């Protein structure tokens, strides 16, 4: 297992073609808009070496029994799945942001069972290749950037019907040693600090779409890989030099648009190529794991937001107001409901044919459906309690101006015993979660990450056996004999 400093050293100079705000970034590690993202990822290494967290952050390798970082493990039991949710909650609490390493973990687990079942059905060699790759992932303790969401072009059209055939990642040439792939993937969380990219299809595919039935892994510095980092609300505050206005100055996340410009992938790194019948299985399993993930990480971030809100109430002198207590209680209820579903879908996990455990898909989808709603309500209650000052207060530059500071100190003070600066810092943290750069992960990603709400509604309907429910009702109503 790498330590946090070893991880940071290992990604130094790795991603070569990175663009941000129109310019090529030569050293992402030191870029003030990207460094908080590196710090959050590094926490996944630091906590694996922390004895108080090792119970969740370490796992046993299914290949050789060695202790490994949990993020490179295959789930060998329902208990492993439960531990995963607890690890993600802990990391959410410690970073207050997206720590960016789960997509790759979920991709590994989905690929392990799907490659096994492709081989069983088709006599291919994908699972062995996958296990060889997994060995390297575990030995090197890599960050994997899971790449699923295609850019999709015209949503009314299938991949093969698009005017531009590159709207979904596809194989453009099969060679003796490997394949050439082309396309783009959107919303790549943690992209530029990853060692590897693991690409999967984005939807169930038909026989005519086999060029899009692709799964493979490539090093991030493979020629033809380009990252255009997306901007986030309030992101340039990180360039202003003062930490005050950022809210959470140490930790953050980033997403990028990933371009695969005719990239060569050797066969030993290809885990699906043309088996369109299995694209749906891979997508469904990956989505199940990632919908489970949110029951951990969002609850962890929610813990910090609830703590910040309760602190803001104290600093303003309203902590004992009955409605404030009730609202904080409501926030906790919503947050624990997210966690409860993550734990429940893990407990009911079952082994797949490969031995890797899969979450209960019905409850994982219920978990994510709650995630599309509850963080918004928690954020609404946080804004309610924080008050308007959160969005109207002066900047750090004003605070640092000796002429203005006495006024700010005097007039924005809450309770006498708390310094004004502490009050303003807590409000900036709430702003960061609800409207600032952390809202990318806490709000909009809660809506669309791991699939938009409608995707879960479809899965819930498919998994819930409505026919049986109707039978139960008919039996009790005397419509059918008992
Ligand atoms: Fe992990 Fe949550 Fe970030 Fe997804 S949003 S990568 S599950 S921390
Ligand atoms: Fe996500």
Briefly characterize the structure:
This protein has helices at residues 4-11, 35-46, 54-57, 78-95, 102-122, 126-140, 279-316, 322-347, 361-371, 374-386, 389-392, 396-399, 405-411, 420-434, 439-448, 453-463, 466-477, and strands at 18-20, 23-24, 58-60, 67-69, 144-147, 170-174, 178-189, 196-199, 214-219, 225-229, 255-266, 270-273, 350-351, 357-358. By secondary structure, the chain is α+β, with helices and mostly antiparallel strands.
Terminal-residue CA separation:
59 Å
User: In angstroms, what is the radius of gyration?
Assistant: 24 Å
Largest sheet descriptor:
6 strands, mixed
Bound ions, cofactors and other small molecules, one mention each: iron/sulfur cluster, fe (iii) ion
State mean pLDDT (0 to 100 scale): 97
Please state the overall shape, judged from the principal axes of the Cα atoms.
globular
Estimated share of beta-strand residues: 5-15%
Main CATH class of the largest domain: Mainly Beta
At the fourth level of CATH, the homologous superfamily of the largest domain is: Butyryl-CoA Dehydrogenase, subunit A, domain 2
CATH architecture of the largest domain: Beta Barrel
Strand order of the largest sheet: 2-1-10-11-7-6
According to DSSP, the number of beta strands is: 14
Helix content: 40-55%
What's the number of domains? Answer: 2
